[in-house]
From TrEMBL:
Pfam families: FERM_M (PF00373), Kindlin_2_N (PF18124)
Gene Ontology cellular component list: focal adhesion
GO biological process terms held by the UniProt record: cell-matrix adhesion; integrin-mediated signaling pathway
Keywords from the named record: Cell adhesion
PH domain span: 378-474
Molecular function GO labels: integrin binding
Protein name according to UniProt: FERM1 protein
CDD domains in the record: FERM_B-lobe, FERM_C_fermitin, FERM_F0_KIND1, PH_fermitin
Domain of life: Eukaryota
Family recorded in the similarity comment: Belongs to the kindlin family.
Length: 678
């Protein structure tokens, strides 16, 4: 027998608060434990002392002071570091969470608050029937947006009721293994590839899924309109610093929701974080395609991303087209001819964005003899103290370089200048209405970026040279199998921009039920009268009126991808050795140093040239090494450096994906590349 003094010296009292719904029972319990008692034993003792008959399988211990879960039930209290002053909570691991989707719909569902965010997002996407969950993550609302919402709620006399889609009965969200439902790619097609509605052969599957046929349509089809009032209430970033605030809210994928201060029934944004939309297929991805479209649409309407007036009209026309399609569902259902399906699949091939380093194409498909371009182009160089100089030269494009000569006859000799485009920024300067086809090249040099602009004569010449420049900036030549699809993509985008005024089409804009203010950013409604906007949108609508519903969405996404700022996330940083702040743009294939005042790019570094990167967690500094002995280091001022570190590692991870692989993800590799060693 152990004496009472010996017992007291080796054991101690541990206070545990139990999160249960029985109001008449006490929530705090004192357990007498020893340091060698394992976590599972603590939970067993606690349940025996509570004496409530219920299912405790989803419960686990949460350590409030350390902000961590005690999930390793075989670990002892000593090994975990738990002592008598610890405050433990015995609570459920799965809790309710409200998620605002890209289409601005809010869903309420049960999510694991103890799993790392990467796993939680994977489970959420399974419920919502979104493939490739590695492209998405959870985002906290910017503080400015929260303040704006609070002011709006205070000013409104009527209580604000949010339309919430409740999916809390999902078997997956309850912590159980749900049926594959609409998620499985190995089964027959789950969506009509033309209309985006659930295929008739799969409607019976909805009985096992939280997504009923009606709920699926809510997620897979677009909202009818967006009122200017809703748009005015949204957070609209005006400067690069404002855009940096948006990017600062990403949750850490290698930590749980509770560890990051997220509470039950909080609201988060579910967004596409990585702009590499892999293996898009309208037969399986109606929800995914629609949510990508909606994210692109709202980014343009809130002016998160800039576009020209001509591009804005194309985006507005495609949106207006959706409205007319949705208002006549019978037309959607009837348009299922095979030729249209083939057109959609052909459009999809142009949408895949693949990083360098991945298995991008079969080597046998590439041309062994590298082709070249040779043509008369106009060279435009900006001058600091005078107007731009514009001269006609004979240009030759070969490998990843552009050389120019005085004329065609002198092309056998030495060029006037040879420009290496590897790692450069390529910016389109196009206005189809005025027949302006320009390619602005920002070429990295020792003291910044050298700006050169090429002027083409027509659309076909522009498409060939633009595609060659885009590939060369990535270190690829025109022999690459992606060259011709790139040319086709550019031409199709130009074709959408190239409309002619048809008196019949725009004679009476009021006869068509269209609110132009719903399809354009607010600044355009201030610049033009609504009748003018309606007429111009209808002009642009002529080139997209024959598209199927899914194809129109894909074309919208494709046009979004063509914008110079597509896929850029911004962070305010200070580079090592610099006294002033700069903006770092993180894209799917490169990092860009941007002047915070002017917004001009200073230097570009490609991921394909990256040798290694690491983080000094003590001083929170990111250091990156590139080829040719180039190295950079910076500290993040607008967000935790872990967010930037995860962005870089995430894009490297996504570049390893291949269609030859199965649907399973190498989660360990993701955490190795993004987790860090804090």
């Amino acid at each position: 027998m152990i004496s009472s003094s010996e017992y007291g010296s080796h054991s101690w009292e541990l206070l545990v608060t139990v999160d249960h719904q029985h109001k008449e029972l006490n929530k705090e319990f004192l357990l007498r434990v020893t340091g060698d008692l394992h976590i599972g034993g603590v939970m067993l003792k606690l349940v025996e002392q509570i004496k409530i008959s219920q299912d405790w399988s989803d419960y686990a211990l949460w350590w409030e002071q350390k902000k961590c879960w005690l999930l390793k039930t075989h670990w002892t209290l000593d090994k975990c570091g738990v002592q008598a002053d610890a405050k433990l909570f015995f609570t459920t691991q799965h809790k309710m969470l409200r998620l605002r989707l890209p289409n601005m719909k809010t869903v309420r569902l049960k999510v694991s608050f103890s799993s790392v965010v990467f796993k939680a997002v994977r489970d959420i996407c399974k419920i919502l029937n979104i493939r490739r969950p590695e492209e998405l993550s959870l985002l906290k609302l910017p503080e400015d947006a929260l303040k704006k919402k609070k002011r709006r709620d205070k000013s409104s006399k009527e209580p604000v009721t949010e339309d919430v889609l409740d999916l809390c009965d999902s078997p997956v969200s309850s912590g159980l293994s749900g049926s594959p439902g609409l998620y499985s790619k190995t089964m027959t097609p789950t969506y009509d590839p033309v209309s985006g509605t659930p295929a008739s052969s799969t409607i019976t599957w909805f009985s096992d899924s939280p997504l009923t046929e009606q709920n699926c349509s809510i997620l897979a089809l677009s909202n009818l309109n967006c009122s200017p009032e809703i748009l005015a209430e949204m957070y609209q970033p005006r400067t690069l610093a404002d855009k940096a605030k948006l990017s600062a809210g990403w949750l850490d994928s290698s930590r749980s929701l509770m560890e990051q201060g997220i509470l039950e029934d909080d609201q988060l944004l579910l967004r596409f974080k990585y702009y590499t939309f892999f293996d898009l297929n309208p037969k399986y991805d109606a929800v995914r395609i629609n949510q990508i479209y909606e994210q692109a649409r709202w980014a343009i309407l809130s002016e998160e991303i800039d576009c020209t007036e001509e591009e804005m009209l194309i985006f507005a026309a495609l949106q207006a087209y959706h409205i007319s399609k949705l208002s006549s569902s019978s037309e959607v259902q009837d348009s299922t001819c095979e030729s249209e399906v083939d057109e959609v699949e052909a459009a999809l091939s142009n949408l895949e964005v693949t990083l360098e380093g991945g298995n991008t194409s079969n080597i046998l498909e590439d041309i062994t003899d590298i082709p070249k371009l040779a043509d008369n182009l106009r060279l435009v160089r900006p001058r600091k103290l005078s107007l731009r100089t514009i001269k006609l030269y004979w240009f030759v494009f070969k490998d990843t370089s552009v050389s120019y000569f005085k004329n065609k006859e002198s092309a056998q000799g030495e060029p006037i200048e040879k420009l290496n485009l590897k790692g450069c920024e390529v910016v389109p300067e196009v206005n189809v209405a005025t027949q302006k086809f320009g390619i602005k090249l920002l070429i990295p040099v020792a003291d910044g970026m050298n700006e050169v602009c090429l002027r083409c004569e027509n659309e076909n010449q522009y498409a060939r040279w633009m595609a060659a420049c885009v590939l060369a900036s990535k270190g690829k030549t025109m022999a690459d199998s992606s060259y011709h699809p790139e040319v086709h993509k550019i031409l199709s985008f130009l074709k959408m921009k190239n409309w002619t005024t048809s008196p019949q089409a725009v004679s009476d804009p009021e006869s068509i039920d269209m609110k132009p203010e719903c399809f354009v950013p607010l600044r355009y409604t201030k610049r033009f009268k609504l009748k003018q906007l309606a007429a111009r949108i209808l002009e642009a609508h002529q080139n997209v009126s024959q598209m199927t519903l899914v194809e129109a969405k894909l074309r919208f996404i494709q046009a979004w991808q063509s914008l110079p700022e597509f896929g850029l996330s911004y962070y305010i940083v200070r580079f090592k050795g610099s006294k002033k702040e700069d903006v770092l743009g993180v894209s799917y294939n490169r990092l860009i140093r941007i002047d915070i005042v002017t917004g001009d790019p200073i230097t570009t570094w490609r991921f394909s040239n990256m040798k290694q990167w690491n983080v000094n967690w003590e001083i929170r500094q990111v250091a990156i090494e590139f080829d040719q002995n180039v190295s950079i280091a910076f500290t993040s001022l607008s967000a935790d450096c872990k967010i930037i570190h995860e962005y870089i590692g995430g894009y490297i991870f996504l570049s390893t994906r291949s269609k030859d692989q199965n649907e399973t993800l190498d989660e360990d590799l993701f955490h190795k590349l993004t987790g860090g060693q804090e």
